[in-house]
Amino acid sequence: MRLQHTSQFTKIILIVEFILVAYLLYALTTNVYKSYRLDLHIKRFEDENARIIDENLKKSTDFQYYTSSQYIDKIAKQNFGLVNPGEEIIVLPAEELTVSSEGDLAKQEIGDVDVAGLSNPQKWWKFFFDR
Fold it and tell me: How far is it, in rounded angstroms, from Cα 116 to Cα 122?
């Protein structure tokens, strides 16, 4: 009889242990999943921080450039006609560009060959290879 009572007690202990192991596995998997999600958030924030640092660095260098005396001098020369002592201004006259019409383009000649009736690839072929 005592043997039968011990086996019932052993069965109850085994069932409790299995339930405890199942609970521990559940707790472990939920913690691993939470850790994984947290790592994803940390990675995303680190990437965003790196992007912000790069953007701040670029803006800092832009600020230094735009507040430099070279930039201010350049803008003053472009917009207000500033001339520093010892500098000379050379003004080049604006040339009028004549734009020919499509009819004039069709009558162009490459070398001695009339290209009016040729397709574009044929014109390029003659330009490069028929000289």
Answer: 11
Residue whose structure tokens are 């040339």? 95
| Cα separation, 23 vs 28, whole angstroms | 9
pTM of the model: 0.46
106 DSSP 8-state letter: H
- CA distances to 26, 41, 67, 98, 100 from 104, rounded to whole Å, are 84, 66, 51, 12, 6
Alpha helices in the chain (DSSP H): 2-66, 69-80, 102-106, 120-129
Task: Grade residue 90 by pLDDT with cuts at 50, 70 and 90.
Answer: confident
Task: Please state the separation of Cα 32 from the chain's center in Å.
Answer: 34
